[in-house]
Amino acid sequence: MSSTDIAMKTTNTTLSPYTSPKEKASPNDTAKRSGDSDSQHWRYDVSQKRQKHETGDKLCFKFVSSGSCLRGETCNFRHDTDAREHCLRGVCFDFLNKGKCERGPDCRFRHSLQDEGDKHPSRKPGSENTRSSRSRECWFCLSSPNVESHLIISIGENYYLALAKGPLVEDHVLIVPVEHMPNTLSLSSESEAELLRFQNSLKRCFKNQEKEVIFFEWASIRGTHANLQVIPIPSSKAVMIEKAFNLAAQKLGFEFVVKKFDSISDGRKFLKTQTDGNSSLFYAEIPGGTILLHHVEEKDTFPAQFGREVLAGLLNMADNADWRNRKHNKDEEMKIVEDFKDRFQEYDPNR
């Protein structure tokens, strides 16, 4: 069982019959004794896992949703990797946190810790049935009832282009593989050719608007459905991009591997050699043929919204770093999509 399953209590839980009357008598005394016991235990157990579970019973939403929390060990809420895994598989956060969800049947997330494909013992994780189940719940799979089709701009054989939910800037779009894959670097060479066509078309489109384009991806080993972020910025700010990323990296205590290539194609070929399935990586393709790459080991923490946060700072749009601050209603999203389609039509490789 996962730690989340073990920790979850039913509503009719009773006190242990082995608790002594003295321990039952005074909650304050109990807490005091518990504290004394813990202080003795800390002499022998100071593991990071122990520290995290001392923070509290409630889950940290920031950690579960993004994979990182700036408060770290000082956070008052629990950083539970099992809960994050369930959340990535479409389980409702309120259900994980409280054991119930007030939205009930109106909630778009699952109220069960078991994947539909896992109900049968003969099915192994990663099997076709399990992937099919996950893709039905995925926001990015075109076959999923959860996909928001009004955000789609252009559809190819292996990739499609869509408006980002809560875009950083008005023309913030995503290049998304049609297949349910964890990152864009693990797809076939045929798929890669179509991705390059999208990238080159977007670069030409934005250049006509006096903008440069940054492509970046958080390729996590725990990723669900890949999406390559595409953010245009004014050409006047292009010279500051690499410096902005390097300063942000220094604050987190790492340095980027920096490579320069003559074409997007050469840069992507290099990136595909960097994936081994054992570590996550973040990369950014910035103007001038430069690739910024950082390998992230599983024991390390890394902000899932790192790329967006860096560019929000560069563009003086700190409030837009969180996509939830930029949510639009459906009518507004449809208008943004139509406006983008009009400007992108002559460059669209799928027209």
TrEMBL record:
Protein name: C3H1-type domain-containing protein
Record key words, sorted: Metal-binding, Zinc, Zinc-finger
Renumbered residue ranges of the record's region Disordered: 1-49, 112-132
GO molecular function: RNA lariat debranching enzyme activator activity; zinc ion binding
Any coiled-coil regions, as ranges: none
Source organism per UniProt: Pisum sativum
GO biological process: mRNA splicing, via spliceosome
First and last residues of each zinc finger (C3H1-type): 54-82, 91-114
